Amino acid sequence: MAESLQIGEETFPAAAVLPLLAQHLLLPQLRREVIIDRALTDIDCSDEEKGLAYQGFCDRQKLSSDEHKQAWLAYHAMTSEQLETLALRELKLQKFKTQTWGNQINSDFLEHKQRFDRLIYSLIRTQDGGLAQELYFRIQDEPDCFSQLAQTYSEGVEAERGGLLGPVTLDVPHPNLAKLLSISQPGQLHPPMRIGEWIVIVRLEKFLPAQLDDNIRQRLLDMRFQDWLKTEMQKNPIQLV
After folding, report:
1. What structural domains does the chain harbor?
2. Of 106, 143, 141, nearest in space to 122 by CA
3. Average pLDDT score over residue span 168-185
4. Quick check: bond before 237 cis, omega within 30?
5. Which one, of 165, 169, 167, 168, lies nearest residue 114 by Cα?
6. Which helix (H) or strand (E) holds 199?
7. Are 112 and 220 a contacting pair, CB within 8 Å?
8. Cα–Cα distance measured from residue 128 to residue 196, given in angstroms and rounded to the nearest whole number
9. How far is CA 206 from the centre of its chain?
């Protein structure tokens, strides 16, 4: 086992490494990884899974030859055994998430579905209240002119798309605008309203309800994991002894 750390021409005894980690705010990250390693201890993987995980890691890191692998190991000051452990860690972490919270994802989705729902809406923004009123009445009389009026008069980036924005989740628009859109029906046009420095005209175009697909399932697993990790870090404070 190494008794010192050498960086360039400077050598640090093992006893000096811990203060260095603390000084450069690296101990919280080390704590995080130690807690995760502890949780993954009993997660088993087959030989086939290990081989696929190792090959996948090498592909992502572009370690296509022994020369590349040796250079990567030297850069990270790691051994081949540590590389194999690291390559398998992502798979074991995913297994841990699925085994721990996989049976709760359906109920989590129902609870948090609104944050995954998406919508498409049209927007015109201006700082001229009189113009906003005029444009609103024109759109009321001729709904199809929204895009053209947005290109001509809207003062935001949406003008380039004829006022069309989305698909986005409800956490993207301004909170007041999101609240309005959340209770709107497709095609519903709202009178000018002030949001910050702007006066906006908005119309909901399409509502896209979320489906529990692989992407959302993974996001829900990650949410559960992050909540668990936050609790574990609070339960395991860093102490220098």
Report:
1. 1-39 (no CATH), 43-103 (no CATH), 114-208 (3.10.50.40)
2. 143
3. 94
4. no
5. 169
6. strand 198-208
7. yes
8. 13
9. 24
Could you tell me if residue 236 is left (phi over 0), alpha (psi between -120 and 50 degrees) or otherwise beta? beta
Name residue, tokens 């909901």.
204
Residue with tokens 């380039």: 160
Q: 159 falls in which pLDDT band (50, 70, 90)?
A: very high
Letter for the amino acid at 173? P
Which alpha helices (H) appear in 40-101, and where do they start and end? 47-60, 66-76, 80-101
Q: Is 78 left (phi over 0), alpha (psi -120 to 50) or beta?
A: beta
Look at residue 240 and tell me whether its pLDDT is greater than 90.
no
Higher pLDDT, 2 or 194: 194
Give the pLDDT score at 141: 96
Query: 127-164: string of b/e by CB count within 10 Å (b at 16+)?
Result: eeeeebeebbeebeeeeeebeebbeebbeeebbeebbb
First-last CA distance in the chain: 21
Please give the distance of CA 128 from its chain centroid, rounded to a whole number.
37
Q: And the tokens for 40? A: 């993954």
